[in-house]
Amino acid sequence: MAMTSNKLGQGISGAWAPVRKATSDVSSRWRNAPKWARIAGYLLLVVLAVLLPSQTVGNIMAPQSDWRTVLFYPIGSYILLALGLNVVVGLAGMLDLGYVAFFAIGGYAMAVLGVNYHWSFWEILPAGVAIAALSGVILGAPTLRLRGDYLAIVTLGFGEIIQRVANNLTVTGGPTGISGIPHPPSIGHFSFLTYGVLDPTPYYYLELLMIILVIFVSYRLENSRIGRGWVAIREDEDAAELMGVPTFAFKVWAFAIGASVGGLSGVVYAAKVIAITPENYPLLLSVLILVCVVLGGSGNRIGVILGAFLVAWLPERFRGLANYRILIFGAALVIMMIFRPGGILPAGRRRSELLEGRGGGQHLGGEFDLGQPGAEPEV
Amino acid sequence: MLLEISELSVFYGKIQALDGVSLDVEEGEIACLIGANGAGKSTTLKTISGLRKVAHGAVRFKGADITHVPGHRRVTMGICQAPEGRGIFPGMTVMDNLGMGAYTRKKRDAERVTGDYERVFSLFPRLKERRKQIAGTMSGGEQQMLAIGRALMSDPDLLLLDEPSMGLAPMLVTQIFEIIKEINGQGTTILLVEQNAIQALSVSRRAYVLESGHITRRALAADLLDDDSIRAAYLGG
Description:
The complex is a heterodimer. By secondary structure, chain A is mainly alpha-helical. Helix content of chain A is 70%, strand content 0%. Chain A contains 17 helices and no strands. In chain A, helix 5 packs parallel to helix 9, helix 5 packs antiparallel against helix 12 and helix 6 crosses helix 12. Chain A is globular and about 50 Å long. Chain B is of the alpha/beta class. Chain B has a domain of 124 residues: Rossmann fold (3-Layer(aba) Sandwich), CATH 3.40.50.300. In chain B, strand 4 and strand 5 form a beta hairpin. The two termini of chain B are 34 Å apart. At the A-B interface, helix 10, helix 11 and helix 16 of A face strand 1, helix 2 and helix 3 of B.
């Protein structure tokens, strides 16, 4: 049965060949374009993103909900989170099923420091990012010796633990959470920099700024020495160590960087919503962010952004279909994965890893090294 | 002595893979480790490279105790391994794979690194032809050449080769062993692990026989080639 459906998938996906060729043509043309053309392309995208919160666009994109609110959360937040998780999953090739934990840590950092200690947003932002990064290291250091599915299970547990802890501590307000979280201070008298209760647009612009920052940083990282090390780790961890890549340290780095982006989006989110409770951070959110990454094309930033946009936007767009929209959404994901296993825009390298039957499987827990039960033997 | 291993024991969980293995490699020679499947040959190499933890015993390289030095630091000390089978980076091009071999080389070494690319390409002209090809799409023999070439890019003093002939056509096997001799002739010390005992013994100076985690014989390779019991066990009569 599995065989036949696989063949079916391949047969029908043959009909997709022209589409696939078109996207790969576009992406190779993009890569070979002169620098000024690419910069112009990026600027155009930024201008589009700035114009996005207009009512005209909203009428088309989300007729049944408030487009500007949707733009901040889920769309902007998912994009930010997916970009962070992409460092862990897409670049370093580790499966993290508890990513929501770092979003929660950033959120509670904003809430606790803002409400109890009266710090301002701009003071909390670096603190929240640092706390999230630190918790990434604390989680990563003992667990990153695990591989594949074992790591996935531990991270899954971590996500649950953070939610339970938030539910049971006094300082986090238990199940009722924390309310009265301060907004960022307004800058000047511009309406798009006035952080109030009613207009979500300024928060969207704040988020957009963070997204651009994270894109830039992760681009620089990917093309650095550590980025090359991550690719090697993703493709074959033992071989990477044999070539002199400090695999353990680089995995912890990937985890810490991913965690800090999660924390960053958590701070920004909490600064807008006034109140947070543990229910804002369910397991489902970890899963959805992973879906964004895998659906969009693990390792390909543009793909990941597109994936996050679709995952966040589609259910809002089809709000009119009530609960059927989730069913349709699920079916769409399954169909996508049959026809484009590398994602909407697969990373060039990832494509050949999938052909080889490696890489794609490894970080999704497909690695079974007989004679080595998951972990380094503790002797 | 370039490499000295004494009384090495390694476990996988509760299963003992190596039990008191002692061997050494002299500067400039080719030494080989032969034995049946599952005897612990690959484990020995992985332990020398730092991929496996040592329970008892010690590994010394150039006189320094490296038993607990992490694997990636051993590369800068001068140990590099070409792993078994398809241990290359399948999604990278041939050039990127070779570049990963030079991962630990410093910027000021750039000129010598360029020279090492030339060295690898003259040893394996095939890799030069295919330098832009994605490594995972090459044949088994080409991948094996790439694994060896990539290890050479770290400019190692000691090259560890894990089953370089595995899965190769007979003609390629002969060719690979010729190249191994040539690499050694250029001054790189080699420790070779092989199931193909005849070929391994004929290029090596000294040999060790490993049986279920123990070294059972140590001798000059030429003597083992003439030894009846070894012929019966490993050379097919």
